[in-house]
Amino acid sequence: MAASSLMGVALAIARKDLKVEWRTKTAFISSLVFAVLVLAVLYFARDKTSVGDYDLAPGALWVTFTFAGMLGLNRAFLLERENRALDGLRLTPTSPTALFLGKMAGNLVFLGVVELVSLPLFILFYDVPIWRQLPLLMAVVALATVGYVAVGTLLSAMVVRTRFSEVMLPVLLLPFLVPPIVSAVQLTWRILALRPLSEMTGWLSLLAAFDIIFFTLSLLLFEAILVE
Amino acid sequence: MASREPAVRVQDVSRRFGYRWVVRNVSMDVGSGEAVMLVGGNGAGKTTLLRVMAGLLKAHRGRIEYRGAVGMVAHHTMLYDALTARENLVFFGRLHGLRDDGRADRLLERLGLDHVSGERIATFSRGMLQRLAIARALLHDPDVLLLDEPLTGLDDAAAHIVLDVITELKARGAALLIATHQLVELTSVTARVGYMVTGRLAALEPLPGPDAGAIVSRYRELMASGG
Asked: In angstroms, rounded to a whole number, what is the distance separating the alpha carbons of residues A107 and A193?
């Protein structure tokens, strides 16, 4: 499959996923409600005299993104299970690479929107002045999201044929997410504390390495997962 | 008229689920321009055989050779409820490399769905969904078409449309393998019948006659002899 054709097919799949989500809004509304709930619960659950905003905010942000994103990742292949649409995709000459890239692109847009909507709520709740640091924080969010979505897309395809796929996905995915989420939390803390960039390069390298390794592995393993 | 050249050749194909062999040592040819009916009771292995032939399931033994593209209509529509009929066809058309949406429009018209092309298919009846599933399978103009119960849920008018489409496909040289329990309607468009008994293709013969009762009798005979 030529690269242009591969990208065209991947875009068609991503567009279709987003169109279905736009019409049903099932995962988006659930993710958003979940994000607000987590941010609020974590904010009100702590003792303000012993845990400051800056200590709690990075963890709260990434717990919110991680679990809110899980709902979208689950939905990505569940919609292919309805009417066995995945069989319909497999009956076309679509390469597993194009299918993976399309699904991943759809998930990235979905999670990106959830993150963009959650971020102002995060600023509101935790009163963190991040405007000057926003580009750097956005870069960290983007970097962590790519690795998260790559593994999440692979695993959501893997569990979709199991009986309890909604439960199986977090169980399988969360252990893989420890390195990027820990890195992202560390980086967010440093960004909020206005630490110099030199203190962040190690964590940034870890995030980038995770993205490259797991994106490549997911791409290579995806075909094997599709075979019944 | 069927040509002698097989469009699809199945050689000694077997498939198991766990330890249970569901399809066992099936060999058959279907020629270009030929329609073969596949009959058998529930659990005889018809659907699994078609899924293996379509490449949706891996054969654990044997091989399948095709000349040209393959399409399939299955029990499930393989379509998206949240999309309209036209959007579904245009989407699958893109995946088949079609740049022209006209093919989707022509198929919608041919299958009698043009008046509902802009409606989401979640509101469709079983018969409308079945016709749309057939349109999806025809998007890339397949040389081999595998149909699993294509007339299920169709009223007389819709069944006639589908039978006409099958006749047209045969005329232009496509090979068709049709798994069905609706023998009466399909005897008019098929020349041979394969009898599946407990995963084996017990016989592949010319239609015993225009009467569906003859097929049932022959099937019972094969069942009694253990396939």
From this structure: 31
The pair of structure tokens assigned to A206 is 């870890």
In whole angstroms, give the CA distance from residue A203 to residue B217: 74
Strand partners, B195: B39, B203
- Beta partners for B206? B192
Could you give phi then psi for residue A193, rounded to 5 degrees?
A: -85, 10
Instruction: Show the CA angle centred on residue A90, arms to residues A110 and A152, nearest 5°.
Output: 35
Residue range A116-142, pLDDT digits in tens: 999 988 888 888 877 888 899 999 999
Residues A47, A52: Cα–Cα separation, whole Å = 8
A to B CB pairs, distance under 8 Å: 69
SS3 A158: helix
Query: B102-111 — which CB contacts under 8 Å span 24+ positions?
Result: B103/B139, B104/B135, B104/B139, B107/B135, B107/B138, B107/B139, B108/B135, B110/B135, B110/B161, B110/B165, B111/B135, B111/B161, B111/B162, B111/B165
Q: Tell me phi and psi for residue A123, to 5 degrees.
A: -65, -40
Beta-sheet strand order (sheet of B6-17): B20-31, B6-17, B61-66
In angstroms, what separates the C-alpha of B32 from chain A's closest C-alpha?
20
From B186, B191, B156, select the one nearest B31 (Cα to Cα): B191
**Nearest residue of B to residue A102, measured between CA atoms:** B95
Q: Does B213 contact A at CB distance below 8 Å? A: no
Four-CA torsion B83, B89, B92, B93, nearest 10 degrees: -140
Among the ranges given (A49-53, A146-150, A221-225, B213-217), the one the predictor scored with the smallest mean pLDDT? A49-53
Token pair for A159: 């569990």
Type of residue numbered A163: R
Residue A111 has pLDDT above 60, yes or no: yes
Mutation target for A interface from B50, B52, B53, B80: give the one with most A CBs within 10 A.
B80
